[in-house]
Amino acid sequence: MAPALAIANVNATSVTLGGLVQARRNATATPVNPSRWTMRPSDALDEIASIATVERDLPLFREGEHAENVFEVTSGTIRVFKLLPDGRRQIIGFVEAGDFLGLSFNDTYLYTAEAVTTAAVRRFPRRRMETLIDENPIIRRRLLAVTANELLTAQEQMVLLGRKTAKEKLCTFLLSLSRKAARRGLCDTRVSMPMGRADIADYLGLTIETVSRTITCLKTAGLIRLLDGHKIELTDLDTIAEMAEAA
Amino acid sequence: MAPALAIANVNATSVTLGGLVQARRNATATPVNPSRWTMRPSDALDEIASIATVERDLPLFREGEHAENVFEVTSGTIRVFKLLPDGRRQIIGFVEAGDFLGLSFNDTYLYTAEAVTTAAVRRFPRRRMETLIDENPIIRRRLLAVTANELLTAQEQMVLLGRKTAKEKLCTFLLSLSRKAARRGLCDTRVSMPMGRADIADYLGLTIETVSRTITCLKTAGLIRLLDGHKIELTDLDTIAEMAEAA
DNA sequence: CGAAGCCTTGACTACATTCAACAGGCGTGG
DNA sequence: CCACGCCTGTTGAATGTAGTCAAGGCTTCG
Question: Is the C-beta of residue B215 closer than 7 Å to nucleic acid chain C?
Fold first, then answer.
């Protein structure tokens, strides 16, 4: 996924606002033509979109803030999480190119979104987004599908968090990385894993130590190999898939 | 919440089909007038609704089945869950009067729905439901709101499952019972808890023993009292609320 | 080269699970 | 009517999985 041009454009004329490096898009001068760089066709959303980048570890928005925008990630990875008062963190999900963020139908954001890697997003004002949803059946169905998919993912994550062992959790996680990669036409056995151990731990409801130990265990069993550059090779995807549902 | 009349009507002319006792509604002869019995005004959904009851412990539908209908619960409680191949169960939620079920936007149901108590539901054919969503902005916004709320609940449940202790889980659960009761105008300190320990355990990601022990602990601490008829008194709601987020 | 951050590993602990026994309620049938 | 079995819930003791605390290795980067 390489909207590199778009990012370059943004950065060239960008203004930093908190964690958000943003550039109001000049619709005529530098029209965004995402279809050249991704599978996604240009759509009615382009009409109301502006683009921006978020630097590593900086927030795109925070839980409780007034929800003014909806976002679509075009490159990079973003972590979405909720915090307990004492600082415990539960990562709800990792959001990547093609995924939407902040579709709360609520006045405030329900979670915090932070960049795992520097990320590029399309930004849509919520007001105009809502109008568009009412008027445009295609956009509507697409967002409905996105939301439904989010619900499905959330429910599967509940099964993972409530009923799976550490090893099953890790294998499920690796499998989902593989599936995501495959869905975007990448190799499903050499996948990128840009998030750190702490992020994985907070996503799977474990500690960094347990994540590390379990990864070592899978490595020793010959199921995976750690590669440079936050990459991981899934040597035995079948066994990983089996272990994802039964220890 | 007493759609007792409606239930009586159904039972009088009902046919059993699996777990589902159903009666095709005769729109002119016995018009459903839910507004007399609940807060909900009659709506466009009435046009395509039929009503049915599900007996205790019987399924309304199963995960993987072709999703032909969408349901709205009008009385009783339904548990929604997913199973792992080896039988481990994660309850996604308890669905009560006013809640919707089976809004999958998918061809098959993503989870199983079983009656905790005998329950009454309104049933809508998915096809006609989809048409209605496209045509009727009011219905659409309502279902969008329902879905968004489901997502919020799911995300909060992830925090619970991934990051809370047994005591915090139980307190959060009790608090949610109280909130639900309050929302429908019932007493928020003497609430009904129709599900058994096994259901609670599978909802909170615990075992029945841990649920039982934790309840005993809360009882000993003077925060709750168990009453007859699956009722529970929340003696100290404030402390319960505190303990829901920090041990 | 040194400092910082991330990851790994080890030893010990603790929370929740497992295994087991038992109590109480309820319906059925003798 | 009581006896019995069944089911649900409670309690106890032992176990185990993952957490906590602590130290050390490795990479990265100034």
Answer: no
